Amino acid sequence: MRASIFLRICVLLAAIVAVGASFLQATGALGLTPAEFANSGASTLQAASYAFAIWGVIYAGLLIYGVYQLAPGWADAALWKRFALPSIISMLAIGAWLVAAGADWRWATVLLIALAALVLLIPLASPARPARQRDVILIVTPLALLAGWLTIATSLNALTVLTAEGVIRDENATLWAIGAIAVAAVAALIVFLRGGALAYPVPLIWGLIAVFVAERDHRPEAAWFAAGTALLLAAILAWRAFARRNTLT
Asked: Model's pTM, two decimal places?
């Protein structure tokens, strides 16, 4: 029981660290802002700036999740155990990413954001078990939204660093951009089709549309590939949601 309470407190503290780091970043206390960090390698692929507003929703969800799971008995024990440690690692990695980005530690940001995504994708890719609607909304949904955004953000982050380091050159940048979108899409399809968390593809669709908006004049091939991928994910999401509704009724 003591170990369980300690882990629950760690979940809440990790959520506070992630949100607190974002506030520090907004004040300039951590150095470069994420936008300034991305500018050094944004010529290959970027998303429209409005897309990053989704972090407000994600951070709010993480804090709600942190509070909800705090008291034993509020959340389903099996579901909580499935996500507790991965969520701690992911949220701490988010906070560390902001520090690394502020310091312009480029390769560290790639590793941290990939770690933050991977530890959540593993439990989300496990076949879903029946759960109370309350637990789905307050545990699975916040973490699925975070994982969904990190899936596309990991690809964008990697392209940013590879471009800033001179690995990607303009003559082959479009191929790199399309490849990065494809990798994110394949990962998303595997996770979503196996796990079925309905919230998971939503940030990906949001991010891919933002890529289309930002790149339709600059890299039209990559932009339309992003739009097509968003449409595919939206169609699969609608299909899974419809199928689940029929199952419940």
From this structure: 0.94
**DSSP sequence for 68-100:** HTTSTTTS-HHHHHHHHHHHHHHHHHHHHHHHH
DSSP 121-187: HHHHTSPP----HHHIIIIIHHHHHHHHHHHHHHHHHHHHHHHHTTSS-GGGHHHHHHHHHHHHHHH
Alpha carbon distance 179, 24 (integer Å): 34
Report the residue count for the chain.
249
Identify which of 134, 182, 121 has the alpha carbon closest to the alpha carbon of residue 155.
182
Q: Decide if 69 contacts 6 (C-beta within 8 A).
A: no
Per-residue pLDDT band for 90 (boundaries 50, 70, 90) equals very high
pLDDT digits (tens, 9 = 90+) for 135-161: 999 999 999 999 999 999 999 999 999
Q: Are 45 and 167 in contact (CB under 8 A)?
A: no
pLDDT for the residue 116: 98
Q: Tell me how far the alpha carbon of residue 6 is from its chain's centroid.
A: 26
Cβ 74 vs Cβ 68: under 8 Å? yes
